[in-house]
């Protein structure tokens, strides 16, 4: 599974980064983005998707 962040929905809460620090990072606009070298197998992406308060993370 790979994921993407719908930037318009992201409120920059950081929950996804806590769950998957090797996948997500905050950009200069305080929005989560998927890292260029994201390791999608490093964490439970379903958890990240389910725990995002604004449903900004989608399967890609
Ligand atoms: S959990 Fe959702 S709202 Fe929070 S930073 Fe990640 S993508 Fe943005």
Automatic annotation (TrEMBL):
Endpoints of the signal sequence: none
Pfam families attached to this UniProt entry: Fer4_13
InterPro entries: 3Fe4S_ferredoxin (IPR001080), 4Fe4S_Fe-S-bd (IPR017896), 4Fe4S_Fe_S_CS (IPR017900), Fe-S_cluster_ET (IPR051269)
Ranges where the 4Fe-4S ferredoxin-type domain occurs: 1-29
Role of this protein: Ferredoxins are iron-sulfur proteins that transfer electrons in a wide variety of metabolic reactions.
Name of this protein: Ferredoxin
Alphabetized GO MF terms: electron transfer activity; iron ion binding; iron-sulfur cluster binding
Listed Gene3D superfamilies: 3.30.70.20
Keywords attached to this entry: Electron transport, Iron, Iron-sulfur, Metal-binding, Transport
